TrEMBL record:
Biological process annotations from GO: magnesium ion transport; protein N-linked glycosylation via asparagine
Record's GO cellular component terms: oligosaccharyltransferase complex
UniProt keyword annotations, A-Z: Disulfide bond, Endoplasmic reticulum, Magnesium, Membrane, Signal, Transmembrane, Transmembrane helix, Transport
Protein name: Tumor suppressor candidate 3-like
Pathways involved: Protein modification; protein glycosylation
Predominant subcellular localization, coarse grouping: endoplasmic reticulum
Length: 225
């Protein structure tokens, strides 16, 4: 039975880095013995009607991490990444007394999950690198995160340079606007507003993505700007 479970998990993992599970699959392949592999489970709510933007952002980071593991030379049948969506496994949420999403849990190969097997998303956030570090602490499996290249910044910079260059070329016979004090004042204000924005504060201070209100227990998420 163990061999069949491992073979099935490997087959699913070969098709998709993150294995989707409903209640029956979760109980059979994650909870029920025998099992000689660790499982990382993301409990989430990705359906549009749930309006969970944090779930979508966490899912993107989770996919990056799972792909990094799936296509690494160290990939083995000792660790699998899975996801349980509330609309596909509400019974699992009830079984675990779970009332918030997203939540990341590690189910070890032996024994029951401990407190440290639940990822502290409220304090650390859900960046792929932080998840990889937590997994290394819990499983001794080292995952090097590989992010797909993002050329949006390079493209935006190229467009800006082209725009400025084109403007200077068209006005090459009359460059008096360069000495316009009002224009430079507006540009300076834009820089000041950008540097004092909430997004810049988040980038410099790196506050936790979410925290719990000690008075009412409500989870509050960090604004993006």
């Amino acid at each position: 039975m163990l061999v069949e479970k491992v073979d099935q998990m490997m087959e699913w993992s070969s098709r998709r880095s993150v294995i989707r599970m409903n209640g029956d699959k979760f109980r059979r392949f994650v909870k029920a013995p025998p099992r000689n592999y660790s499982v990382i489970v993301m409990f989430t709510a990705l359906q549009p009607q749930r309006q969970c933007s944090v779930c979508r952002q966490a899912n993107e980071e989770y996919q990056v991490l799972a792909n990094s593991w799936r296509y690494s030379s160290a990939f083995s049948n000792k660790l699998f990444f899975t996801v349980v969506d509330y609309d596909e496994g509400a019974d699992v949420f009830q079984q675990l007394n779970m009332n918030s999403a997203p939540t990341f849990m590690h189910f070890p190969a032996k024994g029951k999950p401990k407190r440290a097997d639940t990822f502290d998303l409220q304090r650390i956030g859900f960046a792929s690198e932080q998840l990889a570090k937590w997994i290394a602490d819990r499983t001794d499996v080292q995952i090097r995160v590989f992010r797909p290249p993002n050329y949006s910044g390079t493209i935006a910079l190229a467009l800006l340079v082209s725009l400025v260059g084109g403007l200077l070329y068209l006005r090459r016979n009359n460059l008096e606007f360069i000495y316009n004090k009002t224009g430079w004042a507006m540009a300076a204000l834009c820089v000041v507003f950008a540097m004092t924005s909430g997004q810049m504060w988040n980038h410099i201070r790196g506050p936790p993505y979410a925290h719990k209100n000690p008075q009412n227990g409500q989870v509050l998420y960090r604004p993006n700007g």
